[in-house]
Amino acid sequence: MQNLSRRFSTLQVPKLSTPPPQPIRPLFQYSKIQHCRKILEHRIITVLDVCTTLTQAQQVHAHVIANGLSQYSYVITKLIRTLTKLGVPMGTYPELVFRRVTRPNPFLWAAMIRGCVIEGQVSEAVRFYGLMRREGTGPVSFTFSSLFKGCGSVGDVSLGRQVHAQTVVIGGFAADLYVGNTMIDMYLKCGELGCGRKVFDEMPERDVVSWTELIAVYAKSGDMGSARELFEELSLKDMVAWTAMVTGYAQNLMPREALDCFERMRGAGVGIDEVTLLGVVSACAQLGACRYANWVRGIAGESGFGPAENVLVGSALIDMYAKCGSLDDAYDIFRGMKQRNVFSYSSMIWGFAVHGNANAAIELFHEMLTTDVIRPNRVTFIGVLTACSHAGMVDQGRQLFATMEKYYNVTPSAEHYTCMVDLLGRAGRLEEALELAETMPIVAHGGVWGALLGACRIHKNPGIAQIAASHLFELEPKNIGNYVMLSNIYASAGRWGDVSSVRKLMREKGLKKNPAYSWVETKNGGVEKFSAGDTRHPDYEDIKKALEDLLNRLQDHGYRPNLNSVDYDVGDEEKMRILMAHSEKLALAYALLNADTGPTIKIIKNIRICEDCHGFMCGASQVTGRHIIVRDNMRFHHFENGKCNCGNFW
């Protein structure tokens, strides 16, 4: 960009005002002038494309004026777009340049409108549109696409509808593909999915952008049925469309569908990117199956997004392996990363925390601090405080909580207070936990009171449980888990009248208890699913016999069923039958029947493991010599040699 004048000095342009010397030559001379001007315009446009500072743009503007091009809308349009790119406020220099053009064409008006929208001045964009119409200049497609983007950016659907009406009144633009796509995008950003779909249905021509926008929004809203219906109708499916489906399934907790879609995507020969992989990794983490985890790790490496090179994918893989119960693999990826950031450290710290390895989590936290480059964020502190909570490290947790804002400028959020209430509650300091929940400087959300209610379950305190539950019933009236937990706490205390009251409240609200499920990996790498009381499994008779044999062995070693884990006022025999039908026990028996599953049995459960199943797993690990890992909705439990690494802090 140095010596810009040299780029123009070699081209001498005759002045348009110079009269031709004789009547026979004007046409030739004018043609020559026009040709020279076209060359000069091209050079100016080329130079404007590489301008990186305002000074450089002003130098080019000087050449525009010197060569009589200040009224050429094509050149001035490019100049204004360059000034917009450089962040020059539209109400200053760009508007002065614009106002010097006596007859701006529609593209120059569109450049001003676009610049105002980019700057966030949507009202100014509308003002310019009004001026343009009053001067009798018609819009172009870029005019409306910019206005729709502006309406979407500020969420003004009323203004968007007015612009939509203009496209119909003026005519021709409602059928424009680019205008239609930005119109759909505007309605979707304003939360008007129905309007966006109507525009889509009425478009005479659609491209993959039109389809993908709607697919992504349907997926985000949880309507995967509509998303899938649109996707299957799309004839040419590109990477973005496939990725929208994969990530949509993953975000809506449909991991099997996400993986099936991903396999179809690969079978179609469509390339993948970082976003696709993150969706697949999330699906694998939800399934918790190491077979899928290893599979997607291999694909990431083959695609050039291996954890050693890509810090985002690496961090996601750490989280995935931790959720699959393979902490060693997670740590292997962490140590093999060439570059680490706060997300990779936070993922590994969280992994150690939920696996009950608090000392490793805190040690890694301090290692991160020694880098002097990576600073902990809110997620990091949630991980390290969770580690303290699951290990009963009250004093260390308090110290870390005190340093958040003082040393690291991380203001404690409701999630951090949830960790502290959980920490105190698990340690049996229920009164302190209640006081913190009631006096914290921000409004306590459901997570805070849920942590306190969970602690009351551990320490069997129905009085404080009732206080916590009253807040939860107000904050989360449809959350069935809160009612079930309070009912269980009352049942453990033998307060059957209160149990009946809670169940009556659940019926009045139309709430039904979520079914309990457990998943266990099979010898061929698949995943087997069991529900509580499941008698439909083809191997049920063998599973039942294996479970009875295991129960007899456990009773010989002193196991006694915890009948308080049943929140029904029925006889002991019926309670025993209910306990033996719990889904994690069925999954365990199935795994024991399939010796090829290896020395470690991994079970995933969708709700909290009950006290009886916890004691049962401890005993089973001792009499079978197997390492049993159970992931419930709170944490991982590692059962070995008759003990669990949670130390009953769950």
Give the overall shape: elongated
Radius of gyration: 33 Å
Taking the alpha carbons of the first and last residues, their distance comes to: 65 Å
User: Could you give the count of β-strands?
Assistant: 6
Q: What share of residues is helical?
A: 55-70%
Biggest sheet, strands in spatial order?
Answer: 2-1-3-4-5-6
Mean pLDDT: 88
Could you please describe the fold and organization of this structure?
The structure is a single chain. The protein has 650 residues and is mainly α. Among the domains are: 340-412, no CATH class; 414-514, Serine Threonine Protein Phosphatase 5, Tetratricopeptide repeat (Alpha Horseshoe); 517-644, no CATH class. It is built from 33 helices and six strands. It has helices spanning 4-9, 26-49, 54-66, 73-85, 93-99, 106-118, 122-134, 141-154, 157-170, 177-189, 193-202, 208-220, 224-233, 239-251, 255-267, 274-287, 290-302, 311-323, 327-336, 342-354, 358-369, 378-391, 394-408, 414-426, 430-439, 446-459, 462-475, 480-492, 496-508, 540-556, 572-580, 583-593, 611-624; strands spanning 517-521, 527-531, 600-605, 627-631, 636-640, 643-644. Strands 2-1-3-4-5-6 form a six-stranded mixed beta sheet, with helices on one face. It is elongated. The two termini are 65 Å apart. The model is unreliable at 1-30 (pLDDT under 50).
